[in-house]
Design brief:
Order of helices and strands of chain B: HHHHHHHHHH
Radius of gyration of chain A: 43 Å
Oligomer: heterodimer
Helix content of chain B: over 70%
Number of helices of chain A: 7
Largest interface: A-B, 31 and 43 residues
Helix content of chain A: over 70%
Chain lengths: 151, 182
């Protein structure tokens, strides 16, 4: 009996709280002019179009700023890093040499190779007998040899 | 004599589609349907009476502008109420920055007819003040359940939580509010 009474009290208490909650804010709701609110909402929607374009512009600005920071940082880092010439990578050096070689004639290339021979002989690097004579190579083959020597 | 033909009201989803197609009347119709429950929710959640009108309008403006993101995960009204809650939170932040007065004090300092204030029951005032002391999620769940009469599944979908968690939040809120209003 006592338990039933407590349950009943709890239920009454819950119901009372819900009843109070349902009344909450009714004065503000009653005072609201719904038609006027609807009119104003429609007018404001008409006057101030969705700020999507502004959002897109801001997003692009942020992306552009991020790109500038990354590229700028990379440039600064490449200049600060020791042992590297700014803006010139080893790949670029090899590329330029190869380009220069393509402009040389067969005779000029043979002169270059002759100078290589001198360097090699001065370093006492013996050329074994029967080895292929570089003078017998054509221009294309000489270019291949030079590229190989460049590594 | 022929009976007048009753035209069934268009569901919210149809009005939303119409609004997206540029029909302003559809937007006005949605405001007419949901403005009062939204006003009750905002006032219950702590909006000063004098600002409820503006907050209702702002909520609808935001809702209509972001209606593309409404996927029908819950009823339109429930979704609207959660937007209203965010609008109210922003309003509270702005008020705090202006240092006019804290939101809970603003709630008690209700402007309007003094006679109406006298009529408001003391218990109701206690409940309104007690709601301000609850964590935001508990307050929202309590209002959506007790004031708006929503099911836990609907509340959970709107607040991106589970029905079980919504039920727990509600019971915590009820326990604390009972202590305040008893």
């Amino acid at each position: 009996m006592k338990g039933d009474a407590m349950n009943s009290d709890a239920m009454n208490s819950d119901a009372r709280l819900e009843g109070l909650a349902k009344r909450l804010g009714h004065r503000a709701a009653d005072r609201l002019d719904v038609d006027a609110a609807a009119r104003k909402v429609v007018e404001r929607l008409r006057e101030r179009p969705a700020p999507r374009l502004v959002w897109v512009q801001q997003t692009w600005l942020r992306i552009a700023a991020a790109v500038v920071m990354v590229v700028g940082g990379a440039v600064i880092a490449s200049r600060v890093t020791p042992g590297r010439r700014p803006g010139v990578s080893p790949e670029h050096v090899a590329h330029f040499v190869a380009d220069d070689l393509s402009d040389l004639s067969a005779d000029e290339l043979q002169d270059v190779l002759a100078s290589f021979d001198e360097i090699i002989s001065s370093d006492s690097a013996a050329v074994p007998e029967g080895s292929t004579d570089l003078h017998e190579l054509d221009a294309q083959q000489l270019r291949v040899v030079l590229r190989f020597l460049e590594g | 004599m022929a009976q007048p033909h009753m035209v069934p009201a268009a569901p919210d989803a149809a009005l939303i589609l119409a609004w997206q197609a540029g029909d302003e009347q559809a937007a006005a119709e949605l405001v007419g349907r949901h403005a009062r429950p939204l006003a009750r929710f905002l006032a219950g959640a702590g909006a000063p009476d004098a600002d409820v009108d503006d907050l209702v309008q702002e909520t609808f403006i935001r809702a209509f502008r972001s209606v593309d993101r409404f996927r029908g995960q819950c009823q339109f009204r429930t979704w609207l109420l959660t937007i209203g809650s965010n609008v109210l939170k922003d309003f509270g932040r702005r008020a705090a920055r202006r240092k006019v007065m804290p939101l809970d004090e603003a709630v008690r300092d209700v402007t309007g007819d003094p006679h109406e204030h006298a009529e408001a029951s003391e218990t109701e005032e206690l409940l309104a003040a007690g709601l301000q002391k609850l964590p935001r999620l508990q307050r929202e769940v309590f209002l959506l359940r007790a004031q708006q009469g929503l099911e836990y599944e609907e509340i959970a979908a709107a607040l991106a939580t589970t029905p079980g968690a919504a039920r727990v939040h509600y019971h915590h809120a009820v326990r604390r509010l009972k202590e305040i209003v008893k």
